[in-house]
Specification:
The chain has helices at residues 2-13, 17-37, 40-43, 61-68, 101-104, 133-137, 144-172, 174-193, 198-225, 229-238, 241-256, 260-266, 275-280, 285-290, 294-308, 316-335, 337-353, 355-368, 374-398, 408-424, 426-433, 436-452, 463-490, 496-521, 527-544, 559-563, 579-589; strands at residues 49-51, 71-74, 77-80, 84-86, 116-118, 122-124. It is mainly alpha-helical.
Length: 604
């Protein structure tokens, strides 16, 4: 087989400078992608605000709060009102000192009987951040959802970029699409830093996430395709490490850059350095062979042989192997030409009758096939829920420092630090105990760690309270790693690509929802988001227990194989899947390579 011959070439080349260069250049994007994914923690942090009373400009904030603002309860804690002020004749206090206020307003009534009015403008606490997206466009007092939308619109970019990124990469090549998407990202990220309006900034954030996902997928695929089968799993995990490093680097930059425009520019401009990687990086030899660019593939593989110091005196073996692969492909094309012509004619007739109906039927057929049989339906529904919870809780914890009353710089750094062991320590654990038990355990332990916070809410400023939060972050990150592997192994070969693609896309919905849970519900009480995340995590862990174990078992190839996981013998295999499901699989397989339901390989 052609794929086997290419694996033989990579095995002979072994691992060397060529592979390490590709890995290094492809992994760099993870650092910048991570900073953008969680950048709203410092671009639009929760900021204290209150009504701006220009007549009291010479008073201190504390004096203004006690005189002009009513007292309310925020998150269970007494606080000055952030959206209302007392109705007073403030014009008589212009230039008056705090101590002389009663001389100019001797007829003042008690605060309990004073009327209140909404703020017309606001003043913001600039002790930590000089300016934020919130203070720039007054995203407060009835406009809090617009603050949450900044993060959600970024996740919408992921939602659409994840499936399309794989298609673009397969269509135009890994290197070319990576360079084009990088150029788009640089332009829109710089434009976002100077955006004069909220709406334009949202558009820039959406395009940044979309193009950034395309870059990451192309880089990820290129790095993995350059490895042999033995190193592929290790490289796939190590490519996540730069994401944690970017997670840890962001608070360091934000600590010194307290203006949101300067910060956005500071984490966007360095991406220009990655454009050099698109010049140095080779195109994926596997993709070149797949698209029958034999001469270009031969040139790249010969360069790899020279860099790795293998077969440097004679590279004719590469040419010989590629010639054999080319001959196999041409023979296969010749033998199947008649069959393809018949299929094209049949497809043309169907499309001519009803092109729109045929396309819609194909898309819905690919989706409905996941719920047509009992076991596959159980797997799909549970995994959809698990993916939704995983992304929701991951980003919910990562961007929830305000509700935990924790220093945002320390919180973000520790959050990134906790991701490093979760990428590596789970490898032997999953290899020994399988997929189901670790995934269920990670979900349940994360939920318990978050729910325990409700019992110790009086110690929110303590280190061990923060430690419990970080424990929850560790377990949900570990669950995020396992769920990718488990999803691939649960679905049959005929549905594996689409199964992972649909699951990861549904998971993006969780990351879109999580900012609203943190911001809108957290403003009533800090524990509401934690309760939701904790209960959902426990529920996901319990539901995982009803799934089959895949460790040390052959991967299923057909829906029949999936259904027999619940049967004692395989004698009933043929009676499990109805004709409709089988027909849906056959129709979907023809479109698998070009389907918009390709999986997302990006972690973020």
């Amino acid at each position: 087989m052609t794929a086997a011959k290419f694996e033989d070439i990579l095995t002979k080349l072994e691992i060397g400078p060529w592979n390490w260069l590709i890995f290094l250049l492809c992994s760099l994007w993870g650092v910048f992608g991570a900073m953008q994914a969680v950048g709203t923690a410092f671009l639009s942090p929760a900021t204290d605000h209150w009504c701006w009373v220009p007549e009291l400009a010479n008073w201190t904030n504390t004096q203004v709060w006690s005189f002009a603002l009513p007292r309310i309860t925020v998150g269970g804690v007494p606080h000055h009102s952030q959206c209302e002020m007392f109705v007073r004749n403030y014009s008589r206090l212009v230039g008056v000192a705090w101590e002389d206020r009663h001389q100019h307003l001797p007829e003042e009534e008690e605060e309990e009987v004073l009327l209140t009015q909404p703020c017309s403008s606001w003043q913001y606490d600039t002790q930590t951040f000089r300016s934020t997206l919130i203070s720039e466009w007054d995203l407060v007092c009835g406009r809090e959802s617009l603050r949450s939308l900044i993060q959600s619109i970024f996740m919408f970019g992921y939602f659409f970029g994840s499936p399309l990124g794989g298609y673009f990469s397969d269509r135009f090549g890994r290197k070319r699409i990576m360079g084009g998407a990088l150029l788009v990202f640089i332009i829109v990220s710089v434009a976002g830093s100077f955006s004069p309006s909220y709406q334009l900034f949202l558009l820039c954030r959406f395009l940044m996430a979309f193009s950034g996902t395309v870059v990451y997928q192309a880089a990820y695929i290129l790095a993995v395709e350059a490895c042999t089968l033995k190193q592929r799993s290790i490289v796939g995990i190590l490519l996540s490490v730069p994401f944690a490093l970017g997670f840890m680097l962001l608070p360091g930059i934000a600590y010194f850059v307290r203006d949101w425009r300067h910060l956005h520019l500071a984490i966007s401009l360095p991406v220009i350095l990655l454009t050099a990687s698109t010049v140095i990086l080779p195109e994926s030899p596997r993709w070149l062979l797949h698209t029958r660019r034999w001469r270009e593939a031969e040139k790249e593989l010969q360069r790899a042989a020279r860099w790795n110091g293998r077969k440097t005196s004679d590279c004719s073996w590469i040419l010989s192997t590629i010639s054999q692969m080319k001959a196999e492909v041409e023979d296969k094309d010749t033998s199947s030409l008649a069959t393809k012509q018949q299929e094209v004619q049949s497809s043309t007739r169907r499309t001519a009758r009803s092109p729109c109906f045929a396309k819609c039927r194909g898309v819905f057929g690919q989706l409905l096939v996941f719920v047509r049989t009992p076991m596959l339906r159980k797997i799909s529904l549970v995994m959809y829920f698990n993916w939704l919870v995983c992304t929701m809780v991951y980003y919910g914890i990562s961007l929830n420092s305000a509700n935990f009353s924790v220093d945002p710089f320390l919180y973000m750094f520790l959050g990134g630090l906790m991701e490093l062991p979760s990428y590596t320590l789970i490898i032997p654990f999953v290899a020994k105990f399988g997929r189901k038990i670790p995934l269920a355990g990670f979900f349940i332990l994360c939920g318990m760690a978050i729910l325990v916070l409700l019992l110790v809410q009086d110690h929110r400023s303590s280190w061990w309270f923060l430690g419990l939060v970080m424990v929850g972050k560790f377990f949900i990150t570990s669950a995020y790693q396992v769920i990718y592997l488990y999803s691939c192994e649960l679905y049959p070969t005929s549905l594996r690509t689409r199964g992972l693609g649909v699951s990861s896309m549904i998971g993006r919905v969780g990351s879109i929802i999580s900012p609203f849970i943190n911001d809108l519900l957290g403003m009533y009480h800090w524990a509401i988001p934690s309760t939701i995340f904790g209960l959902l995590s426990v529920a996901a862990g319990l539901l995982t227990c009803i799934l089959p174990e895949t460790n040390r078992k052959a991967l299923p190839d057909t829906i029949e194989d999936v259904e027999t996981w619940r049967l004692p013998t395989s004698s009933r295999k043929a009676s499990i899947v109805d004709d409709g499901a089988r027909k849906g699989v056959e129709e979907g397989d023809d479109q698998r390579e070009s389907s918009w339901l390709n999986p997302s390989t990006t972690f973020v």
